[in-house]
Amino acid sequence: MNNVQLLSKPVAPSSITKPIELYIFIDPLCKKALKMQTMLRKLQLQYDHYFTWRYVLSTKLVSLNGLRRTKGCLTGAELDITHPALPSIAIKAAELQGKRAASRYLLKLQEHSLLNTKDVTSYSVLIDIARETNLDIDEFINDFGSKEAARAFQCDLHITREMEVDEIPSIVFFNECIEDEGLKVSGMYAYDVYVHILQEMLDDTLTCQNLPSIEELFNRFHSLTTADVAEIYSITEQEAERELKKRMLQQKLDRLTNEDITLWRKK
Predict the structure, then answer these.
(1) Most buried of 154, 174, 190, 207 (most Cβ within 10 A)?
(2) Model pLDDT, residue 29
(3) Which helix (H) or strand (E) holds 45?
(4) CA-to-CA separations, 51 to 47, 55, 63, 195, in angstroms, rounded
(5) pLDDT on residue 260
(6) What pLDDT, on a 0 to 100 scale, did the predictor assign at position 215?
(7) What percent of the chain has pLDDT over 90?
(8) pLDDT tens-place string over residues 23-80
């Protein structure tokens, strides 16, 4: 791998109880981010007893420059605007209600983006998504236009610059020793590469957890593409689709599709 660098740990790292911490740099609506999330899900299923993780939202700065001219509209719910940076700010607003709330929100936002069912760069649509994911809507609206959400997003951008992450997606691996350098892996690689990095950083043989059943998988992640399921179980997309269709006929899953993608969602 050519895109690997050693980095110093952030000045104020989050407290962790597992030996490895992953900083995952994504643009939430980028197709590569979706592939990264598929890999991360499989890594969680098999090895999450070794690591914690956090997303660092890295929307392009060129997008943010335009936002400065329109940000006054953010607190006016009656005035709708669209902007590529708004989804990232909305995710940070959801995060103020907890990590699980933010994960639900991100998943639903990406679902609409994949299926092209809503314009997820629209302020009013992002409010609607908060309702769909059962967030406290008044709190979300207040947070969406707040300094706290803006600062949280600015913090992510600062971390991106500080670690000199110039390719999205990327992952930086840190171990529990603050004096040790982290390992930055720029771009996307095969799943086995990330497993190998975990093993090298732990300097020990990894214990792999068994993958769950498809039903258990959807209990955890709720909606997945055919490609997600194929990647997680290391099977072909044709084999994954056959298994998913069986669950659809059993009334366990809904199938959502457009000309580009098929998404399966737990009923």
Answers:
(1) 174
(2) 86
(3) helix 31-47
(4) 7, 13, 32, 11
(5) 83
(6) 96
(7) 70
(8) 999 998 888 888 899 999 999 999 999 999 999 999 875 544 444 434 444 444 445 7
CA 190 – CA 197 distance, rounded (Å): 12
For residue range 247-256, what is the model confidence (pLDDT) as tens digits?
999 999 999 9
3-state SS class at 1:
coil
165 has pLDDT over 50:
yes
Q: Give the separation between CA 44 and CA 51, rounded to whole angstroms.
A: 8
Structure tokens, 64: 């943010």
Full set of structural domains in the chain with CATH: 1-58+165-209 (3.40.30.10), 214-266 (1.10.10.10)
Choose among 92, 57, 111, 94: nearest CA to 222.
111
User: Could you tell me which of 34, 210, 219 has the C-alpha nearest to residue 113?
Assistant: 34
Classify residue 244 as exposed, middle or buried by CB count within 10 Å of its CB (0-12, 13-18, 19+): buried
CA gap 34, 228 in Å, rounded: 9
Report the amino acid identity of residue 158.
H
SS3 (DSSP) at 156: helix
Average pLDDT, the chain: 87
Label residues 62-74 b or e (16+ Cβ within 10 Å = b).
eebeebeeebebb
Q: Which two tokens stand for residue 15?
A: 């407290």
Q: Is the pLDDT of residue 162 over 50?
A: yes
CA distance 156 to 151: 9
